[in-house]
Amino acid sequence: MISPYRPDGTGGFMSDFSVEAEAGELGFDQRRLARIDAYLRPFVDDGRLPGWLMTVSRRGKLVHLSSYGERDKEAGRPVTTDTVWRLYSMTKPITSVAAMMLCEEGALSLTDPVAAYLPAFADMRVFTGGSATDPVTEPARTPITVWHLLTHTAGLTYGFLRGHPVDSIYRAHGFEWGRPKGYDLAACCDAWAAMPLQFEPGTGWNYSVATDVLGRVVEVVSGLSLDAFLRTRIFEPLGMTDTAFHVGPADTERLAALYVPGPGATATRGDFGPVPTSPPRFLSGGGGLHGTAADYHRFARMLLGRGELDGVRLLGSRTVDHMTRDHLPAGVSLKTFGNQVLGETAAAGSGFGLGFGVLKDPVALRALASPGQYAWAGAATTLFWVDPVEEIIAMFFTQMLPIGTYPLRTTLGTLVQQALVD
């Protein structure tokens, strides 16, 4: 059954993360909110997804929390509110916040060249022609800056994108979904710096390892490993007790299994290697975190609070405002300036800020939404968005790789928006 609360395995209900207000108190129609579950439930019933969890909150109060299906079909374990999810690229906004905290302290500047902290990036070259096996390159005219990393305009890429010869070069060096065995974050950054850029920094947008490089900058500037910085400066202050680059041995049964589309579009368990039960060698600021919905909700509430949650302030209000503005050149969107591989994310009317996708024009998107809404998603079809106009946070979690197997973002946005009646 779908319930606003989930069984804890002993016949009771989990109380640490639960609905806090009646729908009507926060301007929602409860019957209209129920349309969210009615839309999502068939994805499990017909086997396309193993299970899911969905939340909607307004003005900091959770008004809708539902889950359905299983986090591990083979073991028969249901989705619960304490299920641990692979966040993948929903790690990126967290690493971006870490970098902006250092900027606020004067330890880092958006205009700083990355080479000032990572010397391997001092003499970058740009791909201009040829092939992956015989590339033609020229020296980059513009140094990569911290701002380029935050906005994905550095010219870096991902090997799994398969849209450009440089993507193939990454794969040839062992960078597709993973990295060469034994590489830590520093070694990965050195390897990426030795490969050509797709374009001159600042002249395009390409989803990439930029946030991983940013995580290494955080390490060098702070003098802390990325996991230590995130734990002491973000997770502990916000009370995010279940978010880390690994899953403790006692918590592995809470981790949702990872699935891929199988025959007949049936969710089939994927084999992606062992789950890290101790801090991994490679600390991926671009995609390495695991966490619960409750934890990520606290992070999102901090953003909606313009840097503050429950008396703890991580960022100044104007810093969050700056991060969630569109930073792309005037007159362009991700649809025209981007790499066209991210489906709904790279849509008309969409821009990009410092670590988030930003909706500039809901009319161009052809969907119910608010201007200024900011969001991001993870490779296993996790997603969140913050609507500062309506003061809404919405989150969706499942574990289906790759993202885009079932485009959900626009429809879920409409379903949340249509439930508002105030």
Q: Which key terms come to mind for this protein?
A:
eight-stranded antiparallel β-sheet; about 425 residues; two-stranded antiparallel ribbon; 2 domains; 16 strands; disordered N terminus; 12 helices; Beta-lactamase; alpha+beta
What's a quick, concise take on this entry?
This is Beta-lactamase. The chain has 422 residues and is α+β, with helices and mostly antiparallel strands.
In words, what does this structure look like?
The chain is of the alpha+beta class. It folds into two domains: about 100 residues, no CATH class; about 240 residues, 3-Layer(aba) Sandwich (Beta-lactamase). It is about 25% helix and about 15% strand. It has twelve helices and 16 strands. An eight-stranded antiparallel β-sheet has the order 3-2-1-16-15-14-13-12, sandwiched between helices. Strands 4-9 form a two-stranded antiparallel sheet. Strand 5 and strand 6 form a beta hairpin. Helix 2 packs parallel to helix 6. The longest helix has 16 residues. The protein starts with about 30 loop residues before the first helix and ends with a helix. The N terminus is likely disordered. InterPro entries: Beta-lactam-related, Beta-lactam/transpept-like, Diverse_Enzym_Activities. Pfam families: Beta-lactamase. This is Beta-lactamase.
